[in-house]
Structure prediction request, 297 residues.
Amino acid sequence: MLQEYNPKNENIFIYVGGELLPRKKAKVSVFDSIVQNGDGVWEGLRVYPEGIVCYDKHLNRLQEGAHALAYEEIPTKEEIKKAIKETLDANGMNTDTHIRLTLTRGEKVTSGMDSRLNQSGCCLIVLAEWKKKVYDFSKGIKAISSSIRRSIPAFLDSKIHHNNMLSLVIAKIQANISGYDAAVMLDDRGFVAELNDTNLFLLKDGTVQTPYAHACLPGITRQTFIDLFKENKIPVEERDLTLVEFINADLVFATGTNGEITPVTEMDGREIKCNIKFLERIKNLFELKLPKLCEPL
Ligand SMILES: Cc1ncc(COP(=O)(O)O)c(C=O)c1O
Prediction:
């Protein structure tokens, strides 16, 4: 599924490094670390009339990633929230909106990878667009396993939501070429980590299971679902899971802020069962909880 271009986004204002600029003028410097080294952290946020889903958790992850990468002059939550509010207000957005929030290490005094060349603090980008959810719940998605492994902490810890995303991009290209919607990424040992853009769960014999967060992004929606299962006395566990276990599950679904919950109907050409009663139950539970997860701007 390809996200469509929405002409409503032609004249949006984008916040870049302290300024609100029209789309055509919104640019970062060629000296910015994101251009030089893919050196940035990001979040995808969804806006509803009630507010932004899990707002504080997203900002925490952004700030913690930036701290782990030793960024200097990381903006405070209040500063980030102010920039987001200004951007949404400038665009008249309060629903059906996706925000790509990026914090880069900032501009360098000359090209290079040495972080000592960064002498003017971080650069915050708030790109808010009118956007539908990424996947269609009623159709579900088909996934194919990629030859590219998801990074483990020995290389680059997947707990940092960073812009060094080429392994995910290549995996997605493999899925595109094969005519699939998404790529299943395994960890270094061959256990399933996640899809290239969402976390994975399976249901087997009444228990929900999801891979440990060793090699996947510990998604905020993933945690929301784990909490939801616990609150509703649905057995749930984190463990090492293989492709074979996913293929033979009673249901497989993907979770993420921008797709919420999406069934995975096929993996590597094998059809996966779909326990529709369970799927609809948990979708309803999630939708009931959603307004409570939204935090005001
Ligand atoms: C690789 C990857 N996995 C999972 C997710 C879902 O995470 P979240 O639920 O926090 O949106 C994302 C979202 O950006 C992602 O990039």
Remarks:
- The chain has a mean pLDDT of 97.
- Helices lie at 33-37, 55-68, 77-91, 166-177, 220-231, 243-247, 276-293.
